[in-house]
Design goal:
414 residues, alpha/beta, 14 helices, 12 strands, elongated, 4-stranded antiparallel sheet, 6-stranded mixed sheet, 32% helix
């Protein structure tokens, strides 16, 4: 089929050869596509409403002319190829093409084919070499059933010009074309929506993680029920949790009032507790205080008693051995950085990733900006209402239980 008999090939040839494309009306040449009735593509003039072989999206079996883009729509997609999406649709409507124009997402594919960047497209209906009818007309009988006059036409194929369509019905691309297409598809950008993005594009392979934990699980199952590892035996020996508090004399919780606060759920000012201890013959506070806390609600048997030790210095902590920091579950701070200098982790951001941080303050104090990135939980004590101390202490123990169960469960009694 010659170029002049196919609108799509004629436009492609004009684009590739950079021939001038002008507009014609019944009265002669015109300057706007809106007033034109024909497009002059070099040496051929075709109606702008002529259907092409480029099918519209969502039409799997295109047969009628309305299933294909018109020559006007294909031309607008190429001439407005660099226009933004909104501007492209605006100019298409101003040119008289209110419906049937090439979509923004389809425009690049059309332009690439017209400029010869791609050899073929699955949206273009194959060109029948024995037919000169436009797309959408009733199909003719099978050429195999016609007289043998078709045989010379097949023999004349080697003499076809380069301007004919490369998309023959039985076209078989050579190996070089296949390699070019593969390289093009590597850089292809696929349009995606929220569903395809959430699904992901590559499978996640967790086989290495599965095999790693399978070995650990197998070894744990092979261990005898009554046997304990050396680490478990060491941790089971007198491994009571340890709570560290600030040694600052202005702290709300000190070694003088910590036992009554955590064990009896009653807050007493540190100065009052110090005076009471001095009158009882104990002018100096103990460096280690033990707290016996009932973890379960009282029952007939008395519930489960969990013992904690409270210290306010690293010197007192050393009495528990070289692995004492493994038993520290909580550090109560006043927000002063000097408190952490002798600690194993002097940076509060690092410290409170290894132990639970609790910032003790009055309920009416303003927020402390120093602790905003310390990963600590605020424990607010009311200055006057002592009847709410019980709920404050219960909240503290819940925080400690949750953190210890998740990070150091061996320190809790079963």
């Amino acid at each position: 089929m010659s170029v002049s008999s196919d609108a799509l090939l004629a436009l492609r040839q004009a684009v590739k050869s950079k021939s001038p494309i002008t507009f014609l009306s019944d009265n002669g040449p015109t300057s706007t596509l809106l007033n034109a009735t024909h497009l002059s593509l070099g040496s051929v003039s075709l109606p702008k409403s002529a259907p092409t072989r480029y099918s519209k999206p969502g039409v799997p079996n295109a047969t009628t002319p309305s299933d294909f883009y018109t020559l006007e729509a294909i031309y607008l997609a190429w001439v407005l190829r660099d226009a933004p999406g909104a501007e492209y649709m605006k100019q298409a409507r101003e040119s008289g093409l209110t419906v049937g124009f090439v979509s923004v997402t389809e425009r690049k594919n059309v332009v690439d084919w017209l400029e010869g960047k791609v050899a073929d497209s699955d949206r273009i209906k194959p060109l029948d070499a024995d037919s000169t009818t436009p797309p959408g007309t009733p199909s003719r009988p099978n050429p195999a059933a016609l007289p043998s006059s078709s045989t010379p036409k097949r023999a004349a194929r080697p003499h076809t010009t380069d301007s004919e369509s490369p998309s023959k019905r039985r076209y078989v691309p050579d190996s070089h074309d296949l390699e070019v297409v593969k390289r093009i598809r590597v850089d292809e950008v696929e349009l995606r929506d929220r569903n395809t993005v959430l699904r992901g594009v590559k499978p996640n392979n967790f086989s290495a993680l599965l095999s790693s934990y399978s070995e650990k699980l197998k070894k744990s199952r092979e261990t005898k029920p009554g046997a304990t590892s050396p680490m478990q035996a060491r941790k089971a020996r007198n491994m009571f949790p340890i709570i560290m508090i600030s040694s600052s004399p202005t702290a709300l919780i000190t070694m003088y009032n910590v036992k009554r606060f955590l064990q009896e759920s009653v807050f007493e000012a540190s100065t009052s507790a110090r005076e009471r201890a001095a009158s009882a013959g104990n002018p100096r506070a103990e460096d280690v205080v033990h707290i016996d806390r009932r973890r379960t609600p009282p029952t007939v048997s008395g519930g489960t008693i969990q013992r904690y030790f409270v210290v306010d210095s690293t010197d007192a902590l050393q009495k528990f051995g070289a692995d004492a920091w493994e038993r520290v579950v909580c550090v109560m701070t006043t927000g002063q950085v000097w408190q952490f200098r002798p600690y194993k982790w002097s940076d509060p951001r690092t410290l409170f990733h290894h132990v639970k941080g609790v910032y003790v303050t009055w309920s009416n104090d303003p927020p402390n900006p120093k602790i905003k990135d310390w990963n600590v939980t605020e424990l607010k004590i009311d200055p006057h209402r002592r009847h709410i101390d019980k709920s404050v202490v219960a909240h503290f123990w819940k925080i400690i239980d949750d953190w210890t169960s998740a990070n150091k469960p061996w320190l809790l009694k079963s």
